[in-house]
């Protein structure tokens, strides 16, 4: 550092020494000559600093670089270089920002950005159509622009990727799916999508399945009744016995599918179960369900805590899980049903089997309707492929989480956790 300063400031230091020598020789007082030359050098430095400040304060323009060689030349050069780099960076960032805004502008969804106080920063054109938000609303709190308790909760929770469904403040017949994306601690992106058509299609699908199941139920009961009668007839020709038995079994299967479809439709038709919920003694329900099966099941009750729910639905949830454990594991294999309070203020039901287990790739699909890993075995056992879809629906209605863990060769655990 020292040699660098000496080399760049050589001219000014030499000049100061010459002044000092000249005044020393002229006055003969070397102390005064040193003081004078040092003072001169300091004044000159102050002048340069002032010039530098003035230049920086006025935008450090290239054509207005103050004069002055030595270290000052280096400082000016460095400042200009940094300024150039920062301008370049700013241009790039601006171009990037404009590009992302152009992309969001042409987006088929409404997009708005909010600051840390949930005040509007920016919105695209579609935000006007779906959320009634215009550019002039900038700076206003989103909760004053879109009045919805659900949105208020979504923003307060501040969970990345969380979604809610609300009605559009512009037109209540428009249903919107709002998704929150956390960009960083100071900004959030809110995306709103019109899902009115999607919801209508879902509704139509649900009501079609419900109506079709209802319509098929009665004729199927009649066919099944006649087949049962023919089956029991002593004079039935031997050649017809087998086809009649098969036909009867198939009608029974169809009846099970229709009953499960109707159960699903019922579960889907109402979300609010508050006024049909009661206090349920889970230990009693589990013991009662297990007794209905011929295969022995180990029951471990570790808590006498109760839950609030719909009794028929909780019985159906337990029955489906225990029945599956029995169906899909070899006879005599251990099956454990546990009811316990876990550390996170939850009450959990575990149905654990030690069967052949389920491969990871199937786990996310098990609760889809008619998803079966082994179609042959499911049908052989009289499975409808709807059991876990029903379990998942019941869990959802009771604000419970269904968790499936399984390992090939070791078995599976189906866990349903209810809030305490
Ligand atoms: P199903 O009526 O076919 O049993 P479910 O919805 O109850 O329909 O189950 C879906 C599929 O998940 C079943 O077909 C089966 O392949 C698999 N499954 C469910 N429970 C278990 C289990 N305990 N062990 C192994 N596989 C299981």
Tell me the total number of β-strands. Answer: 12
Q: What ligands does this structure carry?
A: adenosine-5'-diphosphate
Q: What share of residues are in beta strands?
A: 15-25%
CATH architecture of the largest domain: 2-Layer Sandwich
Please count the helical segments: 13
At the fold tier of CATH, the topology name of the largest domain is Heat Shock Protein 90
Strand order of the largest sheet: 2-1-5-4-3
**CATH evolutionary superfamily of the largest domain:** Histidine kinase-like ATPase, C-terminal domain
Supply the CATH class of the largest domain.
Answer: Alpha Beta
How many structural domains?
A: 4
Q: In one word, what is the shape?
A: elongated
What is the topology?
Elements: H1 2-8, H2 10-27, H3 30-57, H4 71-105, E1 110-115, E2 120-123, H5 126-131, H6 142-145, H7 149-157, E3 163-167, E4 175-184, E5 187-194, H8 196-232, H9 238-269, E6 278-280, H10 282-291, E7 298-301, E8 307-309, H11 311-327, E9 335-342, E10 346-353, H12 375-380, H13 387-397, E11 401-407, E12 411-419
Parallel strand pairs: 7-9
Antiparallel strand pairs: 1-2, 1-5, 3-4, 4-5, 6-8, 9-10, 10-12, 11-12
Helix pairs in contact: 2-3, 8-9, 9-13, 10-11, 11-13
Bound molecules: adenosine-5'-diphosphate.
Describe this structure in words.
By secondary structure, the chain is α+β, with helices and mostly antiparallel strands. The protein has four domains: 3-95, no CATH class; 106-194, PAS domain (Beta-Lactamase, 2-Layer Sandwich), CATH 3.30.450.20; 196-269, Signal transduction histidine kinase, dimerisation/phosphotransfer (DHp) domain (Helix Hairpins), CATH 1.10.287; 274-420, Heat Shock Protein 90, CATH 3.30.565. 52% of the residues lie in helices and 18% in strands. The chain has helices at residues 2-8, 10-27, 30-57, 71-105, 126-131, 142-145, 149-157, 196-232, 238-269, 282-291, 311-327, 375-380, 387-397, and strands at 110-115, 120-123, 163-167, 175-184, 187-194, 278-280, 298-301, 307-309, 335-342, 346-353, 401-407, 411-419. The protein has a five-stranded antiparallel sheet, with helices on both faces. The model has no long low-confidence stretch (mean pLDDT 91). Adenosine-5'-diphosphate binds next to helix 11 and helix 13.
């Amino acid at each position: 550092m020292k040699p660098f300063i000496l080399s760049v400031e050589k001219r000014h230091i030499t000049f100061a020494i010459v002044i000092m020598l000249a005044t020393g020789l002229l006055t003969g007082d070397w102390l005064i000559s040193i003081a004078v030359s040092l003072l001169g050098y300091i004044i000159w430095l102050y002048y340069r600093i002032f010039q530098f400040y003035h230049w920086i304060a006025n935008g450090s323009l290239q054509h207005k670089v103050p004069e002055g060689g030595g270290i000052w030349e280096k400082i000016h050069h460095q400042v200009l270089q940094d300024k150039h780099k920062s301008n370049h960076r700013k241009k790039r960032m601006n171009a990037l920002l404009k590009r992302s805004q152009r992309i969001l502008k042409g987006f088929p969804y409404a997009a708005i950005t909010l600051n840390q106080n949930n005040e509007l920063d920016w919105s695209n054109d579609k935000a006007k159509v779906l959320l009634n938000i215009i550019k002039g609303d900038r700076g206003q709190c989103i909760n004053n622009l879109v009045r919805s308790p659900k949105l208020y909760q979504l923003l307060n929770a501040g969970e990345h990727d969380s979604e809610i469904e609300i009605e559009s403040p512009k037109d209540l017949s428009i249903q919107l799916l709002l998704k929150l994306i956390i960009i960083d601690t100071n900004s959030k992106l809110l995306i709103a999508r019109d899902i009115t058509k999607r919801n209508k299609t879902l509704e139509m699908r649900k009501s079609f399945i419900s109506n079709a199941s209802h319509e098929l139920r009665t004729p199927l009961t009649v066919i099944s009744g006649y087949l049962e009668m023919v089956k029991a007839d002593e004079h039935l020709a031997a050649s017809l016995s087998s086809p009649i038995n098969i036909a009867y079994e198939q009608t029974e299967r169809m009846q099970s599918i229709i009953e499960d479809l109707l159960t699903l439709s019922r579960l889907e038709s109402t979300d609010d179960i508050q006024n049909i919920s009661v206090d349920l003694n889970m230990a009693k329900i589990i013991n009662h369900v297990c007794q209905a099966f011929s295969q022995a099941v180990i029951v471990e009750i570790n808590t006498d805590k109760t839950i609030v729910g719909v009794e028929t639905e909780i019985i159906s949830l337990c029955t489906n899980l225990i029945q599956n454990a029995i169906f899909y594991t070899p006879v005599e294999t251990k099956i454990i049903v546990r009811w316990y309070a876990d550390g996170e203020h939850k009450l959990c039901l575990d149905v654990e089997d030690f069967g052949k287990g389920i491969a990871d790739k199937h786990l996310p699909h098990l609760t889809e309707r008619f998803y079966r890993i082994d179609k042959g075995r499911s049908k052989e056992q009289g499975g409808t492929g709807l059991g876990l879809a029903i379990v998942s629906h019941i869990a959802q209605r009771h604000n419970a989480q269904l968790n499936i863990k399984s390992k090939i060769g070791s078995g599976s655990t189906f866990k349903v956790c209810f809030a305490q």
